[in-house]
Amino acid sequence: MYESQVTFTLDTICPWTYMAKKRLDQALAKFRSSPMASSVSYTLHFAPYQLNPNFPPEADRLQWYLDNKHFGDATTQQVFQAHMTNIAEPLGIALRFDGYMGNTLHAHRVVQYFQSSKGPETANKLIDALYERYFEKGEHPSRDEVLIGACVEAGISEEEAKKVVGDKEIGLAEVKAKLREVSRDVDAVPVVTVEGKRRDITLTGAKEVEEYVKTLEKIANEST
């Protein structure tokens, strides 16, 4: 069986990456239940990207979007929220637009550290927990208590989570290097790259479930 890595490049405060992750999860589940699953094993891997590396530690989400994305126009902001809600609801996502924003460096640091030390399954659960906390509960994306709670949800002991989250130097050099590497090739997220025997296929933007399925099947066909 061919072992293929599916690299998902994201920022934990980008709603399009959350929706793309939901769709990709559905596509992977559909592929794994098909006869083609006997030819390829797909492992999901996460690559970090910061939409705004210079973002401050904390900001009010509603106010930040109003000022920086919608030019102070409350009507435009309401239209945006309604549009995003309509896209998210079929995926089982109950979007909230209030709460706090913040720099995501340490969220990426923690994800990358545990992806390396605990493996892809733990990283997958950690990403899901961070998405839900930020987008559906309005929690800050990288406060210590939020990161610790997400780690525990992912099956990491509270003691280890507190140690890694609390010591800001653990994994910091590594994640900064990875962010620099990723930013050389990526200027928007989400990006999904599926590795194949003959070629890799890269999809940019939040694609529909069937497009992800077709890509997984294409790589499988080319890898037999």
Would you write up a description of this structure?
The chain is an alpha+beta fold and 224 residues long. The chain has a domain at 1-49 and 186-224: Glutaredoxin (3-Layer(aba) Sandwich), CATH 3.40.30. Helices cover 52% and strands 13% of the residues. It is built from nine helices and six strands. The strands form two sheets. It has a four-stranded mixed β-sheet with strand order 2-1-5-6, with helices on both faces. α1 (15-32) links the parallel β1 (2-10) and β2 (40-48). The longest helix has 18 residues, at 15-32. The chain is globular. The N and C termini lie close together (8 Å). The mean pLDDT is 97.
Question: Can you give keywords for this protein?
Answer:
Glutaredoxin, globular, 9 helices, alpha+beta
